[in-house]
Amino acid sequence: MILGRITGKVSTTQFQFNVTSSKTRKFQFIQVHHPDYGVVLAQVMELERTQEQLLARCNVIGYKDIDNRIKGIRTPFSLNTEILEAEDSFIKRIIELQSEGGFLGNLEGKNIPINLDLQKILTKHLCVLAKSGAGKSYAVGVLVEEILEKNVPLIIIDPHGEYAAMKHPTEENETLTQWNLKPKGYSAQIQEYGDMNLKQDVRPLKLNEKMNSYELMKLLPLQLTSTQEAMLFSVIKDMEEINFDNILLGLEQLNSSAKWAIIDTIMYLRDLKIFSPSPTPLQELVKPGKCTIINLKGITPEVQDVIVYKLLKDVFLARKQEKIPPFFCIIEEAHNFCPEKGFGKAKSLDIIRLISSEGRKFGLGLCVVSQRPALVQKTILAQCSTQLIMKVTNPNDLRSLVGSIEGITAETEQEIQNLSIGSALLCGFVDRPLVVNIRPRKSKHGGHAVDMLSQPTTPLSETQETSFLTTTNNTITTPKNLTKTTTNIPPPTNPDEYHKDIVQENKNYAEQGILPVILPQITMQEIRMMADKPINKITTYLIPSVLFNCDLRGIEFQVLIDRIKGKIIIDPDKDVKQDIGQVSYRSNFLRKMVYQKVVADVQLQEVLTTEKLKGQLVKYCGVTDFKECFIVYYKVEYK
Ligand SMILES: Nc1ncnc2c1ncn2[C@@H]1O[C@H](COP(=O)(O)OP(=O)(O)OP(=O)(O)O)[C@@H](O)[C@H]1O
Ligand SMILES: [Mg+2]
Q1: For domain 102-205+282-454, is the CATH number 3.40.50.300?
Q2: Residue 577: CB partners within 8 Å, gap ≥ 6?
Q3: Is the Cβ–Cβ distance between 486 and 598 less than 8 Å?
């Protein structure tokens, strides 16, 4: 059937035609005769209506040369050439689709199945990227069904506890029937591990308590000083079996009072109750035909990170030693476990990076799923040879896709923004991106993730507003002495001088518009980059605070206390704080105070004096010094 005729400007990669048939659709495959190359495959990318006509903008895909290779054309089509709808056999011949594999869906608008090469995915990794609610988990569910049907073992890192729904068949039978598929539950193959208090039918996940000194250091929630590290090494170096009880026993025998901070952190790890001398056997987690879901719902992000790190480390090693079969590992909300530089820290980052670069040698396939591609480590995304992309609208995420995925051009960028639910762009499958109609699920879909607060890198928004700003009894003034430029002024180098007259020094600096400040870990520019909705306004607040040098049983640490509510601030960006009575080594504030000119909109007035705060603090620990300063806090308001 003739769909129209070529008109307007024609190049070797693009052309347009005047649509004369109502059967013309976006993403439709078309065939066009070329005087030099014979029949050439092309695709409708957009339909544009003007007052006079309906125009279809098309991309040229290519033709098969005598060596059976797909080639682009070197001279443009002639004007007025007929455009025909492409025959299925012709499309299949040009883009060489597989007849077997994991059935993901159909080529958009066609009855041509897209079967993923599971062997390729298992060895060369996959990423699934799209904005929230665009259909990532739904599509991953389709893939899980296919993988389970091929009996390949799976581990799913499931921060929102949504995959266990796959145990049950879907109730949406109508669409399945149209696809000639039947509802199916996978209860016999799925085993969920997680918090038994939250859900029935869940097994507790017990990770191996035995670990080497490197792993132990990595798992500790605090950065140890070199003395503390040396102390820990002295205890574990000759230990036959490194486990928490043995370490605690060894540490308690030491004479130094510096041991208490380490004892405290080891006890913290032990009390998480996720480590055990009799861990869940890895052969139970990775078994042919089985899908292990690690349900992290209800677990704090820090502990989720510890679990993912230790679990992946152990299974990767076991796979290398061939103690478990090749398997596929799906990591949902990957930006939390393998964040891009400057967007947070994660213990699991290194092991995920290692699996992404070396997993293929050992048969450990990775599927990285994220709603914020810009926040996932580029090096990890770059290792994924297949990409499934659904609708993305955030300009930074789009930019990161164009930058890191081969085959995604500025033009494809437009396509990605316009994808509807159920459609996905599949890249790296054949030599050009294909739009796929994802098939309906046989099993139940676990629903939509809403736990935005578990993302450690998300800036504070109006819904997560820090409690400094919700206080009612402080007045707000606009700072007068703050200028518009931002310059880093290093503190004086001689520490004695630095401490001599801190008050006078602060005064001098203040006169120049320079203030002692604790800066946010995320810059204003990064907040703008990370936002997935338009920002209306960012207000910079200065919150008066004091940084105390404390001493507890001979160990020195820093504590930051705000002068409005009088709380110990653990993380000002995420509003993590504790009462003064809870002060311990773990209150240690690791960030440095800097002297800097700040562009601030609002300076909060202090409610509590430094003397009063000190008076409270000395009830619980020694105070050796203090510095008054300001926390710089960005309040983000969205449109
Ligand atoms: N291929 C599809 N066919 C039919 N419905 C779909 C499809 N993909 C997604 N949906 C619908 O869209 C909803 C959101 O999809 P899904 O949960 O997969 O989003 P997501 O991208 O994983 O979001 P989040 O990032 O918030 O986890 C689903 O509950 C489902 O109803
Ligand atoms: Mg999801």
Answers
A1: yes
A2: 467, 562, 567, 568, 569, 570
A3: yes
Model pLDDT for residues 147-159, shown as the tens digit of each residue: 999 999 999 999 9
The structure's pTM equals 0.72
**DSSP string covering 498-516, please?**
HHHTHHHHHHHHHHTTEEE
Ligand 1 neighbourhood includes 326 CB (under 6 angstroms): no
Tell how many helices (H) and how many strands (E) occur in the chain. Answer: 19, 31
| pLDDT one-digit tens code per residue, 354-403 | 999 999 899 999 999 999 999 999 999 999 999 999 999 988 899 888 87
Phi–psi pair at 63, nearest 5 degrees: -135, 165
Q: How far is the CA of 397 from the centre of ligand 1 (A)?
A: 19
Q: Give the residue extent of every domain in the chain.
A: 2-95, 102-205+282-454, 213-271, 462-638
Give CA torsion, residues 406, 408, 409, 415, to 10 deg: 170
Q: Where does the pLDDT of residue 285 fall: very low under 50, low under 70, confident under 90, or very high at 90 and above?
A: very high
Query: How many whole angstroms from 638 Cα to the centroid of ligand 1?
Result: 24
Class (C level, CATH) for 2-95: mainly beta
Average pLDDT, the chain: 84
Question: Residue 509 is encoded by which pair of tokens?
Answer: 């600096």
